Amino acid sequence: MAIDETELKTTELIMKDLSFGVVFDIDGVLMRDGIIIPNATQALKLLEDKETGEPKYPYIFMTNNGGFTEEEKAKKISIVLEQEIPGDKVMVAHTPVKPLAEKYKDSDVLLISKTHETSKKLADWYGFKNYKSFQQYIEERPFLCPSKYSKFWTTGVAGEYDIKKEKTSEPLPIKSIILLEEPNDWGECIQVVSDILQSKDGLLKKNHIDLSEEQIIDLHVCNPDFTYGGEFLLPRYTMGALLECIKLLFKTQTGRDLIYTLYGKPYPLTYQYGKQLISDQISKLGFQNASIPKHIYAIGDNPYSDIKGANNLEHEGWISILVKTGCFKGDGNHPEIPAKYVVDNVYDAIKLILKLEGQ
Ligand SMILES: [Mg+2]
């Protein structure tokens, strides 16, 4: 009986000192093309209390996808993983822009995504009060993209457009552009973003732009991925490739280097936000005294995003673990961006973490 009590006290001591968290990449680690990877469920179960099924160790999910809220993404992955994942354990590419709603509360923000509805949904979700969706902005200024909207080429009448602008109240100056997800029309996006970034205030009218000699308007870009795997044999371009086009044309036009902030793996803002979410999870589990994790284990399949991002912040306690169930399939470690540890799959990754942490 006395031994049991000692064991209990030892366990309590270990639990009080618990100060680590796990960050899962999703695609290539837990699922592939929406199908669960073998052992993923068992891996997550290792992080639960065996008897109650309640979470025992803190973990979150981090993806470079976007265009949906964290709640929506949580529901999607809950279906595949066959377990309830709460939205506060999920980070998408644009999750770290949430604090920008407060930063830009007194000025307009231009939100760029595939549809007006997506921008509106995310603006409401993150709390942006003053914003224009990209689609609204163009509707009010079709003269910015004449090759697409001007009827001049068909009717011969200049100044007539295929979209009618709605009368709106005088807009606030634009302080910031946020690329939430890759828009459908790159040409339109590159043109209008370049126009706004050359202005002092984003107040573009047909006969007016206040040009600036320096970049005053902030540009935030969520998801730095250059390509993604589609149904075609060759990868498809996405946000990172679009950003390269904007950078090149802005430089050609102004002679200046574009200034921007990137969110998503492997960039530090995303990892720092993830560390905060892990801290929140530690507090929720009742470990107030150890809410800043000493170690955060990032499990991923992509050396260039998951592993690179964690390695860059090794000094802040991040530890990279590369799995072989996704894009990395080589023997040994990645030659250019070696992970701290390489394991076969996510189940082995969790077993390794628990062993390293003495659990
Ligand atoms: Mg992945």
Automatic annotation (TrEMBL):
**Superkingdom field:** Eukaryota
Do you know which PANTHER family this protein is assigned to?
A: CAT EYE SYNDROME CRITICAL REGION PROTEIN 5 (PTHR14269:SF4), CDP-DIACYLGLYCEROL--GLYCEROL-3-PHOSPHATE 3-PHOSPHATIDYLTRANSFERASE-RELATED (PTHR14269)
Instruction: List, alphabetically, the Gene3D superfamilies matched.
Output: HAD superfamily/HAD-like (3.40.50.1000)
Please provide, in alphabetical order, the Gene Ontology terms of the cellular component aspect for this entry: mitochondrion
- Report the coiled-coil segments: none
GO terms of biological process kind = glycerophospholipid biosynthetic process
Q: Quote the protein name from its UniProt record.
A: Uncharacterized protein
